[in-house]
Amino acid sequence: MNDAGADVQVRSLSAWLLGEGYRFATPGAFLEAFAERLCQAGLPLCRLTLTLSQLHPVFRAVTFQWYRGEAATEIPRRRENMTSRIFSHSPIALAMRTRAPLRRRLVGPEAELDFPVLEEFRDKGITDYYVVPLDFGGPQDGGITTYSSDRVDGFDRSHVALIDQLTPALNLVGTVHADRRSIEGLLTTYVGEEPARRILGGEVVRGVGHTVRAVVWWCDLRGFTRLSEGLARDDMLGLLNTYFAAAVDAVHEQDGEVLKFMGDAVLAIFRCEDGDDCSAAQRALAAVRDLQDALAEANRERMALGEPAIECGIALHLGPVMYGNIGAPERLDFTVIGPTVNRVSRLAQLCGPLGETVVLSADVAGAAAIAVRPLGRHVFKGLEEEQAAFAPA
């Protein structure tokens, strides 16, 4: 292709990237469309990847990978894996450190297989491998694109020039998709998956919400004040993180939603889908058992090390809750409120005085259809009627 034709091609692809690249719902969908256009432009492409850095407590980046004739796949990159010896000795890691492109021919007299992964690519039929860093211009690490060819002669000079000339536009598209991923990931981390989905969907005005029927879970540590006074800061943080991790895993395993941490307490809900109170109550009780098992295992290890055991009290109540935004106009909380939440917090206060790990309301006990022990009727501040309490038999 002559220079004039190449310039037209670059302008056309750059215009598509800037005009359409950010509109795709996912980076994977964008990558598939971008790969198709590169192939139509004559690039002998058999594999294309896009790695986006992201702000996330667990994942440092995510890679989207396309192979000719296949749909794009998503590969999360955990933080610890990106500091491993294997990753550190890879062409991607080198490009991230130097922020400079890196090209390797994998066959023929110019072959340079100085990284173990390149031998794997060669064995899959790849002949040419080009790594190009992306610059997102912010606190993140940017991104990486890799272009692979299985053409006998690999990429020629015009192919590499095309890739290089498209990189500035790809920087902007990558920035948009990386920022979206970070926003989604951070919101999910801090407020939960369903609230994050609703917030990003536009539910951001105070008072916006809806009523749902759910089993409300309230769990808090026993002896928290004593522990916080007696333990060093790092030991207390370690204890809290172990407890919170076990509680979150237990709730999520049973399709519940953790809404917030309040000091040492965990507030979660198990929705009554299609009016099925029984299923929600049974899932909540299964989560209780899962948490008890996890803490029992953690406590065996802690006590072997001379560390205090983690004990908690859990209360469950069933009823309608308002699920949505409350707070000040510019400082909101997405949570649940209402009489159901008030009552479950009062039930949780019975765990210590009654020496019980789990306290159920009459509604949960009836919905779960399990054998229970009556714990009497109790008067709570702010509630006129006595409240019956039960424990699993």
Q: What can you tell me about this protein's structure?
A:
The protein has helices at residues 3-20, 27-40, 85-88, 91-98, 116-123, 157-191, 193-200, 224-230, 233-253, 277-304, 339-348, 351-354, 362-368; strands at residues 47-53, 59-67, 73-78, 102-105, 128-134, 143-149, 209-221, 257-262, 265-271, 312-328, 331-337, 358-361, 372-378, 387-392. Strands 7, 8, 9, 10, 11, 12, 13 and 14 form an eight-stranded mixed sheet that branches. A six-stranded antiparallel sheet has the order 3-2-1-6-5-4, with helices on both faces. 44% of the residues lie in helices and 27% in strands. The termini are far apart. The chain has 393 residues and is of the alpha+beta class.
Brief write-up:
This protein has 393 residues and is α+β, with helices and mostly antiparallel strands. It is built from 13 helices and 14 strands.
List keywords for this structure.
alpha+beta; Alpha-Beta Plaits; 393 residues; 13 helices; six-stranded antiparallel sheet; eight-stranded mixed sheet
**Structural class label:** alpha+beta
- Rounded to an integer in angstroms, the radius of gyration calculated over CA atoms is 28 Å
The amount of helix comes to 40-55%
How do the SSEs run, as a string of H and E?
A: HHEEEHHEHEEHHEHHEEHEEHHEHEE
Rounded average pLDDT? 93
The major β-sheet equals: 8 strands, mixed
How many discrete domains?
A: 2
- The portion of residues forming beta strands comes to 25-35%
- In the predicted model, the low-confidence regions spanning at least 5 consecutive residues are none
